Amino acid sequence: MQSGPQPADFADVRATNLAVVLRHVRTHAPCSRADIAAATGLNKATVSSLVADLIERRLLRETGLAEHRIGRPATMLVLDGQPYAAIGMEVSADHLTAVAVDLAGEQLLSWRRAFTGTETAAGKAVSTIAALASRAASRVAAQGRQVLGVTVGVPGLVDADGAVRLATGLGWRDVELRADLVRALRDPKYDVAVDNDANLSALAEHRYGAFAGTANLVYLTGELGIGAGVVVDGRLLRGGRGFSGEIGHLQLDPGGPLCPCGRVGCLEALAGVRAIIQRVLPEAEADGPVTDFAPEIDEVVRRARRDDAATVDALAAVGRHLGHGVSILANLVNPDVVVLGGNFVPLAPWILPAAQAELAVRAVAPDAGGCRIVASGLAQGAAATGGAARALAAVDAGHLPPFPAV
Questions:
Q1: Antiparallel, parallel or unpaired: β 146-154 and 157-158
Q2: Tens digits of residue pLDDT in 269-305
Q3: Which of 12, 18, 122, 151 has the maximum number of C-beta atoms within 10 A of its C-beta?
Q4: Residue 184 Ramachandran class (φ > 0 left, ψ -120 to 50 alpha, else beta)
Q5: How far are the Cα atoms of 107, 233, 318, 321, 344 from residue 355, in angstroms, in the given order?
Q6: pTM, entire model
Q7: What is the per-residue pLDDT across 328-354, written as a single tens digit (0 to 9) for each?
Q8: Residues 241, 337 contacting (CB under 8 angstroms)
């Protein structure tokens, strides 16, 4: 039996070239066949054949002629993708989000539903997640679109099979989420995947955010926990078993507060949303743990805008802890930008200055190796958007959908 690398057959080469053309149009549309040939090195006849294939699949469409060019006007190409949609979902401690986008990135739906993840048993949670996924898929199908995939983001350790090995914020351990969802959705024709929410948020930023295309980028979640989605040289860093990015459980203070993971002084225990609420609004948990964080975060913002000294000082301390954590990332992987998401976004005006200053002090490289910390410009639910982006990235990579029915 032959082992080692095998030569690519014609189908492999064609799939690769189809992906090259599709990616070029996504980045440079509107563009002509001649533009594609010049930029990719493929000959014009090959490009014409590939474009014809992509038009037949309804992944590209022609959009008129370009004037003001040397020679004859050229027929221009843009993404089509109207028959297709990708669905992403985000599981958070206090809500579920579902997003659907088409191939061009146009948002088709965006839903946010209350969800008491910290109080819901895993079995019931699966049913709730599956019901929302099914509704989203039905809505998309009613628009005459084929679902390319459903990807669910979870704040925890997710293995290659889509099992959630540990999600301390949700109280989950060894939940076979992907397999359970496939059963609950009755073996759908589309792909079902589960991934870490920080990874998916990083994909969303890398595809749609203000720093889209940045080769070295980190996204820090700001939900119940703090996770890091790390993009290095344009590729998501996953590690040996997919458990990378757990920055929230770096111990920054050995004498610090207890973390939900059972350790003390973790970044999450010092700068997570629950730590912020406990520090600024200690009365909020008088009647029990907070399960809906939005009202409390809104109150923290109101107090900060009034220049309440205790609130501003507390947020500066949070910023310093975040800057400390980011400095470790800067020293290890030297990102160009670290994007703060979730509940950190509305708090960014009071967090970022202290975070950036702490990064500058603790990073080894001059000027923090060029790293800067910014707030995400994406709407809440970045992990859901990234879940949809995951399926679209698979198309970009050459895993093309079958020809749509006529």
A1: unpaired
A2: 999 999 999 999 988 877 777 777 889 999 999 999 9
A3: 151
A4: alpha
A5: 33, 24, 8, 7, 12
A6: 0.90
A7: 999 999 999 999 999 999 999 999 999
A8: no
